[in-house]
Amino acid sequence: MVSEQLVDLSRLQFAATAMYHFLFVPLTIGMVWMLVIMESVYVMTGKQVYKDMTRFWGKLFGINFALGVTTGITLEFQFGTNWAYYSHYVGDIFGAPLAIEGLMAFFLESTFIGLFFFGWDRLSRKQHLLVTILMAVGTNLSALWILIANGWMQSPVGAEFSYQTMRMEMTDFWAIVFNPDAQAKFVHTVSAGYVTGAMFVLSISAFYLLRGRDIEFAKRSFRIAAAFGLASALSVIVLGDESGYTVGEAQQTKIAAMEAMWETEPAPAGLKLIAGINESEMKNDWEIEIPWVLGLIGTRSIDKQLPGIKDILVENRARIVSGIAAVKALEAVRADAGDEEAKATLERHMSDLGFGLLLRKYVADMDQVTPEIIDRAARDTIPRVTPMFWAFRVMVALGFWFLALFGSALWFSVKGDFADRRWLQRAALWSLPLPWIACEVGWFVAEYGRQPWTIYGVLPTHLSVSTLSVSSLYGSLAGFVGFYTLLLIVEMFLMIKFARLGPGSLGTGRYTNEPAHA
Amino acid sequence: MNDQKLIRKLALVIVVKLALLTALWWHFVRDHDRVLEADSVAVHIGARPQPTTEGTSHGQ
Description:
The complex is a heterodimer. By secondary structure, chain A is mainly alpha-helical.
């Protein structure tokens, strides 16, 4: 059996590299649409300041892109090295969107990013704007394919298991592409990126306003960021609600853990604002609840119930028992391909095969399974509730903070007196790191909440890892973390340097910190 | 700082990054081929290999 240390280290390595990678990604996704807006205004009005805005914010976008590009490659290394069984089991399905993403990223996104930076003097205004739009489309399409792959891990559709090849095989490509979980995840994730891009521009513009420099440039940037940010914050909340609905449909365990909902409550269930979670006794010692809200989000109805953790445990236990029959039938079919009875049994219990495989963490032989082992495996199907509950609340609270901040920024922009409201500018400046925190805890909820599965209900995490040595994993973990930390330091250094220089770094002679004024 | 200087710096960053990635790949990935076939996966998850294909597994 695979050691728990090996599984934990493999997970830690993937989580660390993915979370580092996602420090760069949301800014790229969000900033690119800010550039489209700024350049569109330039093309429509012909005002030089909008071209300067596109070039300056484009420069910061370029620094982020240059530092962030290829940081996802180490994740792909790991699919091959650390997750070999996962790659074999689901590679036929998972590989397709990843390959398309690679084509999008390298041939569409990167090409147009090159044209964006080097095409200012070679393309007409409209041609350059078209390049910027295609760069934005390419960036977002890149994200779409990654999230289709990730959505399939959360809700595996359009595929079936083959006992001959011992892998999942694609049966319906379009079901995978239009998987509701993937679509909800895509719109929610890119909206979070848009909030990040808007906050980045809003915060740095607020910094210039607080310093009393490059006022006209900062005011225009602030206004665009406020409008785009408000639309994005609304999107991220509304589409997060949609994401909650699809999670409710596909992964009731995750939503029950996010809500610390131990018992099945009468429909429509209430949403717990905060609670004192007692995991050992499987109850909340106290809680403050808003009636109805969770039921409405999770089921879009007032009479459908969302199951609580205790009922899910009972259901999962039954599925594990059914899964034992599936695993035994699979063993029989693998030993004798002509065993028709075993094939029929496997077919009957196929949907619970993954649940039977959860027992492999404890026993090699299915005949040694005891009721206690089944209970332990069933308990494994529920992720730890406390981190899920609080991480989700941090994300939601930040979402509403962004709504309030961008709403205030736009309100005072429309009134025309935001430049005098230093509290607003300070709030914008100090909110700069918050979208990244929201993005990271959002991913934590999505991925930690999927445990103990790599593919929900199909393949347990402990059967997905390669049989590497622990020392090798420590070494590569240190290497990857060192590599990403170095990139992050360089990113921070360049970003802070150019943000401080401001639009003067363009060398146009129109702004503070120009060489002539220095 | 003008754009040319920044471009040179970013180009240097990308070259260093690719070199580091290559070094990581060289050290941790290159010699760790995982050739998996149905039989080795069956053994890993506990289902026995089919007798007709026994002995063809590359394992790990």
